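Risk register update: the risk of archive-format incompatibility is retired. Evidence:
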Amino acid sequence: MVSRIEQIRTFLKDNPNDSFLRHALALEYVKLGDDALAESLFVSLLEEDPAYVGSYYHLAKLLERKGESTLAMEWYEKGMGAARAANDRHALNELQAAYDELID
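Archived output:
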């Protein structure tokens, strides 16, 4: 049986810049508890595709779990900016709520 990670990596060979696939791969590593690799994948994705709004929340949550609150706040802020630019109210509200919870 082929693992989800292997499947995603196979798809990425054909489409290495596919943000959805890269995001999915990072989430798989989060599930495995490999925060370092997941963080690296999220950061790389967002550096290359800053409009991929969904990854900001997951990266910031990962950083919160690691105790890196200041860095998490920075990513929430960047994500809120990207969500505003994309006029994505749902993502903006989700990011804002997580940010507000962190700073309280």
